[in-house]
Design brief:
By secondary structure, the chain is mainly α. It has 4 helices and no strands.
Amino acid sequence: MDRAALDDLLLDAHARNDPAALVTYYTMAADEREGAGDIDAACFFLTHAFVFALEHGAPEADNLNQRLVRHGRADRLKL
C-alpha cells in the first residue's frame, strides 16, 4: 500500500474513532518505515499504535511494547 493511501486510512480511522483500525494502520505505517530503515519514524508510529492498543485493551499491545523495547524506546511492561 502506498503512503498516501495509508495516510487516508489513518485519517478516516481517526474520524470514525475506530481504535482497532488505528492500531492496525499505525502498525502498518511502522512496518513500512522499519522496512525502509527509518527507525525513528517506525517508533513514532509504533508508539501511536501502542497507546491506542493500551487504551482499548487490544491484544496487540504486548507485541507493540516488545518492538519498542527492541528499539530502546520503552521499558518492558507486564501486560
